[in-house]
Amino acid sequence: VGGITLTAQADNTGGTDSKGASVNDLLVFDQDDFTEKTESIADASGTEHSVTYRFYKARNYVTNPSDSDHQTLVVSVPVKIDGTAVDASNAPIVLANAVGAYMPTSVAEATGVGQAKLEMTGMGGAMPSGMPPGGTGGGMAGGTGAINGMVNLAKPALVAGYVVVEPGTRGRSLTDSSGSYYGTAPAVIVDLKAAVRYIRASKGRIPGNVERIVSTGTSAGGASSALLGASGDSEIYEPYLREAGAADASDAIFATGAWCPITDLEHADGAYEWNWGTLPTQTTGKTVDQSVSKELRSQFAEYQAGLKLRGLKGSGFGKITARNYTDYLLEHYLRPSATKYLAALSASERETYLARNTFITWKNNRATFTWEGYLAHVAQRKKTQPAFDAFDLSAGENNEFGKGTTKARHFTAYSAKNDTTGLSSKRVDSDIPEKLKLMNPMFHLLEERNPNRSKHWWVRLGTSDTDTALTVAANLAMAVDNLGDDVDHAYYWDKGHATNEDPGDFIKWVAKVTG
Ligand code: DHB
């Protein structure tokens, strides 16, 4: 596809093919196969720079792709920026995924940096519930740039002098000639891991420091990035990586950037009702069934108590439960976020904002408000109920857990029990528990305490993002903080889904943690 062929096929058993050639030999990165390009590219603050870089067009990162179009990556290496030569031979490597909605991404036709495409066609009725078609209002958009309003980090990373790798990935809409879904869970994480292994196996050929791989992604891509960071070298992916013909190398990464990660899917319905359960939905303007909401909320309370997470270092909070979580969110995230936002306004802008938002008290240059005031301000929930495992199997996540020719399946006991599609079984299929582990960073962090996880974490979320509960990102941050990792976590005031308000700070953070 697209002129990409492999010189040989491995049978991928034991890292060698039938003639004894190692998988790594078959995946050699051809250093000379690039075009040198000079473009004007904006840095993270929007300033244009003249950037000369080597662009390595799409090549497969596995020897046995089930889809040679999507399982490819492109590499961009800076050579000269504003006339000054750049030596990227030991630079951090930014692995920028363009995943959204657990849909496929492709770089097969990319001719330069930042052209990864998110393929939103074929979502059919299985869009994430409440997600507007065509990507308005902070939803998803197909095409270059991937997610509406989302800064493409590949370009500013290149302008900062980093090596940029953009992987294509299989996604939930893909079917083969027999109608079988081959891009559903765990394909996206298998592909990202295979890309990391390819980079590591290409040490010395792909320029950059393979011990300083930094992953980025937003929403489903943020979830995948967090999962990549949490699951470094976990053995549970081994059969999948072997089958794909991934390189024989570590898939651990150094640092993880995750914007509004849509993760911990099997617990997200409860968290969603706990957080947004009393708000009317965007689609109908009506409040959801409060008895279902109550049942789901109590599942969240039980789950949260069992996590035994403590508030972030310096937050002054001990164990976080459903009882004190609103205080934790208010004190550690929401009020500081509003304070920062208001402090940056001019006095008259601030006055106008405060006059329109009387739920906020501004005193001694600090914003205070109640949880109820904050909720009324957000006003609406994006999703219907349950938000992720829909009773009628209509959520995008139902498709993400599809298998074979079954497009959508339940992945929680509660929704399987309450199924409305006429399924004979009221339970999840027997492979689901393992699939959930393969897809959930919390498993690797809390159950495995994975020593090969990434130790540096950048997590961001908009305070008006109702694509998932605020607790999902906060729990991820606590999980890594409580393990002793370095976490930079903040919420953007009044910002919706998939926003990135401080890409320049992220680029600087990469320099700091990798330096
Ligand atoms: C995305 C958004 C969702 O609401 C969801 O359930 C899954 C993914 C996204 O924007 O990637």
- In one word, what is the shape? globular
Q: What is the helix content?
A: 25-40%
| DSSP E strands, number | 15
Q: Biggest β-sheet: count, sense, barrel? A: 10 strands, mixed
Task: Report the mean per-residue pLDDT as an integer.
Answer: 92
Task: Count up the helices.
Answer: 16
Domain BD-FAE-like: 138-271
Protein name: Tat pathway signal sequence domain protein
Keywords: Signal
Organism: Streptomyces griseicoloratus
Task: Describe the structure in your own words.
- The protein is α/β, with parallel strands linked by helices and about 525 residues long.
- The chain is built from 16 helices and 15 strands.
- It has helices spanning about 25, 155-160, 185-200, 220-230, 240-245, 265-275, 290-305, 325-345, 345-355, 370-380, 395-400, 415, 430-440, 440-445, 470-480, 505-515, and strands at about 35-40, 50-60, 70-80, 85, 95, 105, 115-120, 145, 165, 215, 255-260, 360-365, 365-370, 455-460, 485-490.
- The strands form 3 sheets. Strands 1, 2, 3, 4, 5, 9, 10, 11, 14 and 15 form a 10-stranded mixed sheet that branches.
- Strand 14, helix 15 (about 470-480) and strand 15 (about 485-490) form a beta-alpha-beta unit.
- It is globular and about 60 Å long.
- Residues about 1-15 and about 125-150 have low confidence and may be disordered.
- The structure holds 3,4-dihydroxybenzoic acid.
- 3,4-dihydroxybenzoic acid binds near residues 128, 131, 262 and 467.
- InterPro entries: AB_hydrolase_fold (IPR029058), BD-FAE-like_dom (IPR049492), Tannase_B (IPR048124), TAT_signal (IPR006311).
- It holds the Pfam family BD-FAE.
- This is Tat pathway signal sequence domain protein.
- Keywords: Signal.
